[in-house]
Amino acid sequence: MNLSLVVLIPLLGAPLAAWVSRFGRLHAAWMAGVLAALALAALIPSKPAVFHGETLVQQLAWLPDLGLNLAFRLDGLGMLFAILILVIGLLVILYARYYLSESDSTGRFYAYLLLFMGSMMGVVLSENILLLLMFWEMTSLSSFLLISYWQQRSDARNGARMALTITGLGGLAMLGGFLLLGRIAGSYDLSAILAQGDAIRAHPLYTPMLVLILLGAFTKSAQFPFHFWLPQAMAAPTPVSAYLHSATLVKAGVFLLARLFPVLSGTHAWSYLVMGLGLTTLLMGAYFALFKHDLKGLLAYSTISHLGLITLLFGIGTPLAAVAAVFHIINHATFKASLFMAAGIIDHECGTRDMRLINGLWRYMPYTATLAIVAALSMAGVPLFNGFLSKEMFFGEAVNFARDSVWIWVFPATVALAGVLAVAYSLRFIHDVFFNGEPVNLPRTPHEPPRWMQVPVEVLVAICLLVGVAPAYTVGPFLHVAVAAVLQAEPPHYSLAIWHGFNAALLMSVVALVGGVLVYGGRRPLFALARRWHGLLDAPAVYRWVLRQVLALAGAVTRLLDTGSLQRLAAVFIVTALVAGAVGIIPPRLPITGPVAVSAPDAASVLVAAMLVVVGLASVLIHQRRLTSLIVLGAAGLLVSLIFVKFSAPDLALTQLSVEVVTIVLLLLAMYFLPRRTPVETDTGRRLGHFFIALGAGGGAGILSWAMLTRPHASISRFFLDNSVSGGGGANVVNVILVDFRGFDTLGEITVLALAGLGIYALLKDLRLPGPRYDIAGRPWDWDVHPPIMAALVRLLLPLALLVAVFIFLRGHNLPGGGFIAGLVTAVALIMQYLANGVDWTHARMPRNLHPAIGLGLLTALVTGSASMLLGYPFLTSAFTHVHWPFADFELASAIAFDLGVYLVVVGATLLILVHMGLMHGASHLPDAGRPRAARDAAPHPTSRLAAD
Amino acid sequence: MEALFAGIIASLTGCGVYLALRAYTFPVVLGLTLLSYGVNLFLFATGRLTVGQPAVISDTAAGYADPLPQALVLTAIVIAFGMTAFVIMLALKAKAELGNDHVDGRPPDNPRDEWEQDRADGWANDREDEA
User: From A697, which residue of chain B is nearest by alpha-carbon distance?
Assistant: First the structure.
């Protein structure tokens, strides 16, 4: 299980790093360092097995139905990358501790860094490709956070956004590619996929799958034409650049090429795409790197170029080329990380990164200069440094590849040209920065940085040297197992010596070195030429143009559909639903009427149906008169509950009946604040259109119902009916489903109800609306709001109503009833008190704060459910027993406690809504507002009188 | 019976949709309520129409109605109430914030009509008082 630890330690530790930074600026750095070291320590125990050539696979079931397991895999390639990521990560953590200034938040920085580190570890250690994709997306997101770390700078925000857009689009393409790959291979596990390369390459879907996966890899690895995000990402703090662009983010793309090399490579499509883009990127990156004045810009384009080189090697596709590619991944990671760190030191000490200003730093910081020069020589491919070895392998492979083809000299010459440019820009990095006269107007006088800031650079430069001098003793074993993992076979014979005799590769190295010196020597006319061509290939401008077009299109579609009119939007919505539904009916694949025989209607049903249709039509026809249409609507609700009675659903009938009362009271209360009439809409065309839409919707719903009702009915309810008594301890199956079988759904539903109640409370809290003073006929509002006879009667009714509620609640498990209905009945009984006696009177006699009732209800339901979990049963499993009371023998199920929770929430939420509505009324007609003076003097306010007694 | 039931659903849905497409908040709320009746009846009908056989287990019952759609619809009715309440409160809030009850919150095309309307509803005097 140590592999999951390697991934999870940085991921789960990220919030920890953010948290400890509250106790001191440097705590986060220490925490991040300790966590990275821990992850490394968790990896070490697996090392011997991998060096014996084993592939470790460890998995935890996660979503097995989707083929997605938390499966990790460690082989040579994964281990190589894991060590690179963790070791360079540790160095970056140390470096950043000195790089970040006092005003930068260290907690945020290290949290993002750990998040990114964990995501990268996930990418390189995933066994399942869907899991890999998930971590891949996490690297995109976390690198977005890292690049935009200086949020106050617009270039950081733009660079981060561009990186996220490009890599995110690539990730989307890759998802498609991976799904295809999984479909072709029949499994999402790499072990299964890697074992069937031939079958996958022969599959008809191979080419689309390849293109999609390559899109993902190339966007991540900044290959032409997606390279432009990488230089923009240089707005990040330099430790981030050093990390992202040496060993991690951009290497994820080439990692993927290496990982899927045995499956994808070896076809023409692979060769053309990967080689073509790799070669283009190699040349283009090297060319632009030479002409950048920004130190980090030079490194950025050189990174692009080197990634092109690695991609090109994978594109060549021979086993030896794969060796060279993996070797160059290691070498590039070391020298590029140290160069970025050196650039960061220079930036830190000089206050600028412009190479036209930075000159002659050798005199000010000789030690840093030495380190940077060694790294830059390695980048140039000078012998005795590690870059030379892999580059010579690369030259050798280029010659070998071209030997059999028509490109016998064109290809090696092109590659050598790239080598020339690489030497030239490396030379520029050395000469322009450390020599070449005196600094020009630097903001600060440079000097050597803090000692510990140099240590990470030292370590990396030492690796460059050691690997360069004695490759077989240092990197040899790592390379061997990594290549074996890439090829999924025994690696070919290769020699890691510095001297291979006089051959074509050596000649190319010499040409590159001499040519590079010459090009750098003649740089002035070249710079002039480059200035003239500047802007010919402005990829960010193309990107911005495309982005603008996409946004304009999105805006146009939105404006077309949404003109700011809800009516139009609703009409579009309904028509769309109608069209989508009609597609299934119009070409009649199946007859609308099904095979099941229908039953004959009886007279009462016809009457009820006719009444419902009339009531529905009436509510439309007289909807201008709001009060009347509301009363009609109430009739419709009552008729619906009659339908439930008829068709064996007593619980529904009771619920509908009580909800109807509450709804009508609520709407009446609300109507007080709204105009009495709806103005006539003058646009007859629109009304006609809506009429036809309504006709279509009604007709569609009718056809659908008819088609459904005349088809055979296969229900899963048999299970509920069989197990209701034995498993749930109740005879009322509907109630047992609510509180037991599907109790989790009910918990969700009462939560929604509680939220609706609280939301309404928030809406009404500070709402003040004026109420009308005259009715339609111009008569003043009647202030005798609580007629005594009604008040007295309702008070008498209260205990009876509550008794009914208790009765319904208790019998609910075995006979129609239950928490929902009892809750509604209680709410109606209490609302009657409010209506008849006034808010003040009622509030004096019962708790006015209803939030505790809602909270208590939710809590009761949750605790009842969890109690069964504590005892080892699934959520909401009932326990029940028979209780003998003097008068009866009845069953007591634990579900009754859950039902009590439902009851409390329903009462609480319903009352909360209606009482606050009522309070608004109280506020709208304060005692002195608009009452005739005579009436006010004659009698005390009825409300206050009742409240007083 | 089935045709009758389908007809009920059709008429409730049609009336509900027409009202939901109106330009003022109150009819929209009424329309949504009618629509929810229609939807609830449709959901209920997925268990088919059974007469006189409630889903209460007993030794003498000849058969049972399908209890599952009933449980679904029971909670749907309560949730529909919560939704209706929320929408009507939104309508009140909009009235308070925007001064009218048009669904788009825009002053109607013909302000004079609205003023006449207000006077008929007993608000006009308030305005005069404030002025």
Answer: B14
